[in-house]
Please model this.
Amino acid sequence: MAEDEVNYASVVFKSNQQQKSEGKLIKKEETVYDKVKVQNKATEQTPVTNASAEFLPDKKSNHRCRHYQQLACCLGTLCIILVLVIIAVGVYHVTSIYENDETELNQLKENQTTLNAVNRNLTKLNNKLSSDNEDLKRNQTQLTLQMNNLTQTFNVLDKEVTNLTKENRNLKDKNKELKTQNKDLEAEKKNLTETEIQNLTTSSNEHNVSRAQWSIDAYCPQENNNRKCKACQKGWELNSSCYATNNADQGERKTWEEARKDCRGKISDLAVAINEEETKIICEKSWQKNENTGYWIGLRVEDGKWKWLDGRDLTNNSWIDQSSPSDGHCAISLQNQGFKSVSCDEKNRWICKKKALSV
Model:
């Protein structure tokens, strides 16, 4: 029954790795079977049995080595697979990170573009606000100046109001004085006697009688205790109306307004022409010899139109050499030349006209 017995042997390996030979380092591994221990459970073995037991551990060792090699191969394969999986996961992770980074980068670029646009808008807004601020400062300066001017004006007006108040008080005092004087005058009027009133009435009547007497003497002069009345007073010529030609010397000539005032003082006015006959009469009376001078008549420009003093418009433009009227111009009459437009401020002779009396 020696075949059923199990013998155990132990092998101790020793290695000599570094040996120096002739100054050089030589790495060499040698396997030396130094000791072989065999343990026998059955002490009663024959030498033949011990001899066969020496080969059994070698076979088992080879089997174990192959088993270990297969195990190492499997572990290596697993390690390679694991490494490949790790690499794949790393690549996927890196790719995912890259894609995320690229997405984030694009998002950051978009955000940067948006921020740049916002920044530009804010810059424009800031520039506009700065400009508005400058305008407000200028307006504030102007308003300050205006306020100072208004303050000065207010002070001046306040002084004027004070002065006007004083003047108003003075006027009120004067008004009281005038009222007092008026009362005194009313009292004096009441104190007038009927005789004084009658004397005043008599004086007025005498004045009217004197004026009437002058009119009678002018139109009906007394000759040899007889009176002979005429249609025109002395110094006036009759031609359907009474005309007075004023042949004033150079220093006594008058403007159009002055000439009209003189005619009114004679209860007449500057001559006007109603028809062709009166136009001819007026021109004939402009008779001064050896002088190219004219006579004022009652025709002037009003509101861009030629008008007579009686309110009529000049309908026949052939009567005057300048049909285009100019404000500030009046008409003079020239002998055998018709009417002429000149400035109303010139000084000329003049012709007055008034109605003739029926005799």
